[in-house]
Each structure stands twice: as C-alpha cells, then as structure tokens.
Amino acid sequence: MLVLQARRSTQPLLILFFVFMCIDVESIGINWGTMATHQLPPDMVVQMLKNNGINKIKLFEADNKILTALSGTDIEVMLAIPNDMLAEMSGDNGVAAAYWVKENVTQYTYNSAVNISITFVYAIDCLLFVLKNQFQYRISCPIGFLSKLYRVSWYVAVGNEPFHETHNGIYFNVTLPALRNIQNALNDAGLGSKIKATVPFNADVYFSPDWNPVPSGGDFRPDIRDLIIQLVQYLSENGSPFTINIYPFLSLYRNENFPKEFAFFDGANMPVQDGDAKYTNLFDAYLDTLLWALRRAGYPNMQIIVGEIGWPTDGDKHANVAYAKRFNEGLIQHILSGRGTPVRRGEIEIYISSLFDENCKILVHGTFERHWGILEYDGKPKYDINLSGNQAKKGLIGAQNVQYLSNCTSLGYGSYGNHLTPHKIPGMVLTCLTCIVRRVTRKAGTVISLVWQKRLWNTSTE
Ligand SMILES: *[C@@H]1O[C@H](CO)[C@@H](O)[C@H](O)[C@H]1NC(C)=O
Ligand SMILES: *[C@@H]1O[C@H](CO)[C@@H](O)[C@H](O)[C@H]1NC(C)=O
Ligand SMILES: *[C@@H]1O[C@H](CO)[C@@H](O)[C@H](O)[C@H]1NC(C)=O
Ligand SMILES: *[C@@H]1O[C@H](CO)[C@@H](O)[C@H](O)[C@H]1NC(C)=O
Ligand SMILES: *[C@@H]1O[C@H](CO)[C@@H](O)[C@H](O)[C@H]1NC(C)=O
Ligand SMILES: *[C@@H]1O[C@H](CO)[C@@H](O)[C@H](O)[C@H]1NC(C)=O
Fold first, then answer.
1. pLDDT tens digits along 50-74
2. Is 256 a catalytic residue?
3. Residue identifier of the C-alpha nearest atom 10 of ligand 5
4. pLDDT at 236 over 70
C-alpha cells in the first residue's frame, strides 16, 4: 500500500504523457481500397497493419472477409456505404438501413473495443491486475479503459463524395435521409456513442470567390449551400464529424503554373497572406477554407476528418515515388506536430490514400488514379515512410509470407517489372485467373471491375 501511495502523485502526469502519445499515433489512418485484381488475404494485411502500428483504416465497402479479419482487433474502422446504396438506405422508414447496420456493423463489433459491455469487462480484468499490483498494468489499464470508454471507435461513411459535380445531383435528395437512418439504426443497436455516421465530401462542395481567393472567403457551393448546412446541422447535433477529401496533387495536375512548393509542405518562401494568417501549404489553405465556410454557416467548432489525402507514384509527370514520399512525409510531420492550421490549432485526423495500388479503379483523370498506394499490390513498401513519427521505428514493414505462384510470377513480374501496369492486367487476369464481373461504385459514376476469385498468391491462409 505504501508503495502504491508513494507513486500515486506521479501517475497523473505519466498518464497525461501517455494519453498524448496515444493521441499522436491515432490521428493517422489509411484508406484500404479493394478495387484491384490482386489482393492479399485480409488476415495477412491486418497482421501487416499491426506490425506497423497502424490502427485506423477506412474501407470503401463492407467486405465480409476484411471485416472478419479486423473484428476483435484494436484497429478502428471507417466503413463506407457506396453511393449506389444511398437511395435504398434513405427509404423504407429505415428498415434497409437497420438491416445494413445489423449485417455489416453489429456482427463485427460484437468482439471489439466498440462494444461498451466489453469495455467494462476489460476494466474489471484490469482492476484485478492492478490490485495484484502488477506494475505493468497500472498505467496501461486506466489509459486503455478511458480511451476505450470515451473514444468514438468506428465511423460509418454514408456515401463517398455524393455531391461531387460529376454525379449531377442524383444523390442530393437521398444523402441526408440515408445519414439519419444509419445513425438511428446505430443508436437503436446501442452503438450510437461509439459509432458515428458521417459523409465524406469532395473539396468541391466549398470554394473561395474569385474576388477574394483566400481561405477567409470560404463558403459552400451556392447550389448546395442549404442542403450542406442541413447536413452539418444534423452532424453537429449528433456529435459526428464533417469529413472532407483533399487532394493537393490535383491542383498541380490541373494547373501547370501552380507553385509546386505550395502543394507540398515547403512553401515557406512564398506564403499566401490572408489577414493575419500566413499560408505556406495548400493543405492548410484547403482546410481553413472549409473552416471558414463552416464558421459562416454558424458551426465554428465542427469536428473535421480528412477522409482521403495522398500522392500517387505513377501515371503523371508529377506522380512519382520521390514526390509521394516528400508529400506524405511532410503531411505526417505536419499532422504529428499538432500545429494544426492558422484557423484551428491542434491535431487533425487524416486517412492517407492509400494502402495499395488499385488497378481496377475508374480513370476519370488519368492512370495516376491507380497508383495511390504506399505499398505495391503485393504488400511491398514503395518507399520508406515514418507513419508513427516514432524515433525508433524503422520505416514501413511490408506484408510477410507472401508467396507467388511460380507460373504467374513470370507473367506478373518478369514481363512488366515490379509495378503492375494497369492496362496490361486483363491479359494476365485471363491467363491466370477466373474472373467475375461486378459493378462497383467509387469516385465518379459506376465502374465495371474485375474481381478475381482465385488468388495469385498461394498462401496457406486462403
Ligand atoms: C452489407 O454491405 C455490402 C457491401 O456494401 C452490401 O452488398 C450488402 O447488401 C450489405 N448488407 C445489407 C444487409 O445491406
Ligand atoms: C457486446 O458483447 C456482449 C457480450 O459480451 C453482447 O451480448 C452484446 O450484444 C454485444 N453488443 C454489441 C452491440 O455488439
Ligand atoms: C429532389 O427533390 C425535389 C423536391 O422534392 C425534386 O424536385 C427533385 O426532382 C428531386 N431530385 C431528384 C434527383 O430526385
Ligand atoms: C520519424 O518521425 C519523427 C517525427 O517526425 C522523427 O523525430 C524521427 O526521427 C523519424 N524517425 C525516422 C526513423 O526517420
Ligand atoms: C499454373 O499453375 C496452375 C496451378 O498449379 C496449373 O493448373 C496451371 O496448369 C499452370 N499453368 C501454366 C501455364 O503452367
Ligand atoms: C501452395 O501451397 C501449398 C502449401 O504450402 C503447397 O502444398 C502447394 O503445392 C502450393 N501450390 C502451388 C501451386 O504452388
């Protein structure tokens, strides 16, 4: 007892210290897209995520095998409902939404930190260890318990950029009702405090006017302003975040004269002055334009999540490994520094785009859209990147125990080099694999994607 009391006074400080460390790590997640003919077994990917200390993942669609692999782990999930399901989710007095939540969320959260009753079981176990005075638990238990109890652990992303101009407004009428139905279904399942529904928007939902092209001029696009504000009001009442996808790469891609340094995080020499605020990178400027738009709408304190952000490694003259590394490294350092933006100081939650290259993604702009991965399709890191900001950590750890079928290897690797060349894939697919054709919606419009049934990699987990 004496020992316990003597140490007690230092504990709050230590706890605070560890809590801040935990928060640091938790602000960086990764998008795990699956529009690829060649995918690693989910168990193998989940192991790789754990090896790298990645504990937040965003999925574009509920996939039974992936969710099963994630279930029971501490990895937080943002799970999206594809746009083409929004109409269904919006109707029916919420019956379809309730069914979606039951089938795609509840059954996987049964064993996870999302489940509040499991949090309390954890707390009791912990307390027993602490009472037995097993020192190693005395710090980790209270932190684990508090973070499990108070942290929102999952998100459901209702649609993906449903108000993007390329959709011509077909989702305007269904997005808010779908959002409401999904959140109600989560609440009814007893998950409302741990799982929040949100809508990832494209950065084209807001703008700065030509006569005042600085963040403080920010406002929502006039044609959807009322609708967005209704959505924001709902999110705000429900304690849910506003999710925005930001792609500085596209600014460089679309505009030859765009100052390159500003797209990265190296624009200190040519800052943009906006009143008292000085902007040295596009990321801050984009984010603050949104914060100003929200402030104008009367929601200055809205929580923001950056749902997608990254840099491609191929398919355009500005898309290469060196630039991707430079951008992502600058981004991560910026996020982990906790400096925030001129309008809002502090941590920003982001999901990097993305884990793997996706050779079946629709090409609206160019082939770079299939090369956002920080890993090759087979789980090899493309470049070294320091995701945790941890001093000791040695770069990215690739997927372990990947095996290649010898006869496909020569086709995949020998002929095309180490990068999967998208337009050459179908030939290989036909040679090696049985494919089915399935319709998948992601980004602008409907996509035909090849989903392969037989895996190229011969792993014992399959
Ligand atoms: C669960 O999600 C998948 C993928 O989006 C979808 O195909 C399926 O219909 C969903 N289940 C229900 C009951 O809505
Ligand atoms: C949480 O786990 C308990 C069993 O430990 C289970 O009875 C309950 O239904 C689960 N709740 C959810 C929302 O998964
Ligand atoms: C959305 O609702 C409005 C008003 O009810 C209607 O006029 C409009 O046609 C609808 N749009 C779509 C795409 O369904
Ligand atoms: C990782 O990033 C942190 C913070 O930015 C830095 O202090 C550390 O030196 C980096 N570690 C490596 C191995 O590069
Ligand atoms: C490739 O391997 C599969 C499975 O071992 C085998 O059935 C097939 O005949 C092989 N194809 C070629 C071209 O060697
Ligand atoms: C696949 O792996 C299993 C188990 O390691 C092995 O028995 C089998 O021969 C392998 N098949 C091929 C085509 O390499």
1. 988 898 999 999 999 999 999 988 8
2. no
3. 407
4. yes
